[in-house]
Amino acid sequence: MLRSKAFSLLKPIPLMSGQSNLAYKLTHPAIASHGLHCHGRIANYRQRCKTCPCNAGRRTISAAQAKVMAETELPGILILDIGGTHGVLENLAALLKKHFHLITMKEFLEHKKEMSKKIQSVFVFEGRPTIDRELLESLPNLKVIGNSGVGVDHLDVKMISEFGVKVTNTPHAVADSTADIGMALMLASARRLVEGCQVAVSPDTKCFAVDWLGVEVTRATLGIIGMGSIGYKVAQRARAFDMRILYHNRHQRSQEEEEAVGAHYCEKMEDLLQQADFVMLIVNLTPETHKLIGKKELGLMKPTATLINISRGAVIDQDALVEALSNKVIRAAALDVTYPEPLPRDHPLLKLNNIIITPHIGTATVQAIRMMAEEAIANMLAVLNGQPIPSEVCPK
Ligand SMILES: O=C(O)C(=O)CO
């Protein structure tokens, strides 16, 4: 297929906030309110507009280039929030460019007339951009929204499907890196790693090991809530620590799968909560799992237990968690996800010393980012070519 030289020279342009009503809606509200570029979760914590090293966003294209793009044969793909630094932007763009004409939100808004019919896919890389009726109505030939990541709680899949548009996700690409972050949080919390680091970098602090006693992960009981592919990968890793593994899930795994990792099914979540030394949340955020862990559930946990969340912040009632941690109802918590993200500076969770919080870095590895893009591309191409879709998210 032919590709225009002019287009191949184009650099993808990250979404700019506040450009128009539509652009505003496509910017995560939390990010807009912080005045940050919508560059992805990690960048949200670190990059302010002024210091952002990514200057690509300032680039624009001519009407002639836009016309060439609109006439070329590769399907157009609208890029929502492809961001980051350190070459991530360029690497992902290069992968996408093999199959699609990249059209950034800025380009789309500037040349809507030429662009809108060309766009057949929307690629959601990071952040939680709003895909609403207004956007869908402006894309008459849209066939697929390819989400990078497994969680699609930011997308109204039912509404999107009414437009005949498919939604896909990347459960395979995220599984190892997200399971690793679950293990990392469990170990770090158990052995008070963050506090230890703080002591080590303050040479004046007197440090006796007895003041920093942690608890052992080895041979402890791990309760996994949500035994999908990430949950199962966690169980595989936990087996190497001789952990006793309990799990609660909508469906019981096969006997073979259970035996392979030595996991025992708890039909009632309460049974798991009462027995586990570490409770790890790995469920999708749905109306059923919203505030799944609240005051009652925290009260069932052992006072020596640790709660780890690598799913979505809203799975925990954060007010109840603040209370439970302050009153030592449970030993500690380790969260890779919160609501909102990031937490406001004065949030009570940030004032506690029995908590570890990371900025939603479950998939923040060089390998996972690339695999997510590859899996998303495979999904989107399958939809466009009328082939079986590897990972489709069906409306409930
Ligand atoms: O895949 C996702 O949705 C994640 O948030 C992984 O951390």
UniProtKB/TrEMBL annotation:
Keywords: Oxidoreductase. One of its GO terms (cellular component) is cytosol. InterPro entries: D-isomer_2-hydroxyacid_DH, D-isomer_2_OHA_DH_cat_dom, D-isomer_DH_CS1, D-isomer_DH_NAD-bd, NAD(P)-bd_dom_sf. CDD domains: GDH. PROSITE patterns: D_2_HYDROXYACID_DH_1. The keyword Oxidoreductase applies. One of its GO terms (molecular function) is glyoxylate reductase (NADPH) activity. It comes from the Eukaryota. Residues 183-362 form the D-isomer specific 2-hydroxyacid dehydrogenase NAD-binding domain. It holds the Pfam family 2-Hacid_dh_C. Gene3D superfamilies: NAD(P)-binding Rossmann-like Domain (3.40.50.720). Residues 92-393 form the D-isomer specific 2-hydroxyacid dehydrogenase catalytic domain. The keyword rRNA-binding does not apply. PANTHER family: 2-HYDROXYACID DEHYDROGENASE-RELATED, 2-KETOGLUCONATE REDUCTASE. Belongs to the D-isomer specific 2-hydroxyacid dehydrogenase family. This is Glyoxylate reductase/hydroxypyruvate reductase. It comes from Falco tinnunculus. The lineage of its organism: Eukaryota, Metazoa, Chordata, Craniata, Vertebrata.
